[in-house]
Design goal:
Length: 115
């Protein structure tokens, strides 16, 4: 995606992240992302089968990446409200709970301050 196309979106993804998302969708069906700021993996974006994760009352929907809804915990959103999240993928082992873990890759969040 070009920078101009995504300038006003709260969440976007790199081409590498989109490619991994498409691969995971082919294997697991519809997906969902959630970034909680919880204990184990901090604020790592976690990818789940869409029907296996329950959205909480305080979770905030930021938008879709590669046709996949992305939510963030309310407390995290308060900290990141003035940023654009850019979901990327890097080599390494992600959380055992996130679907990309067996792929030898992990999703990470980069950010830029919104003006």
């Amino acid at each position: 995606m070009s920078e101009l196309d995504t300038a006003n979106e709260k969440v976007t993804a790199t081409e590498a992240a989109e490619a991994l998302i498409e691969s995971l969708k082919a294997q697991h069906g519809p997906l969902l992302f959630h970034q909680s700021g919880g204990c184990c993996d901090g604020s790592a974006p976690m990818c789940y089968p869409r029907d296996e994760f329950r959205i909480g009352d305080r979770d905030v929907y930021l938008g879709d990446i590669a046709g996949t809804p992305f939510y963030i915990g309310g407390d995290q959103y308060a900290l990141w409200a003035h940023t654009q999240l850019i979901i990327d993928v890097v080599p390494g082992r992600g959380s055992g709970f996130s679907l990309e873990a067996p792929e030898g890759k992990r999703f990470i969040t980069r950010s830029t301050v919104c003006t």
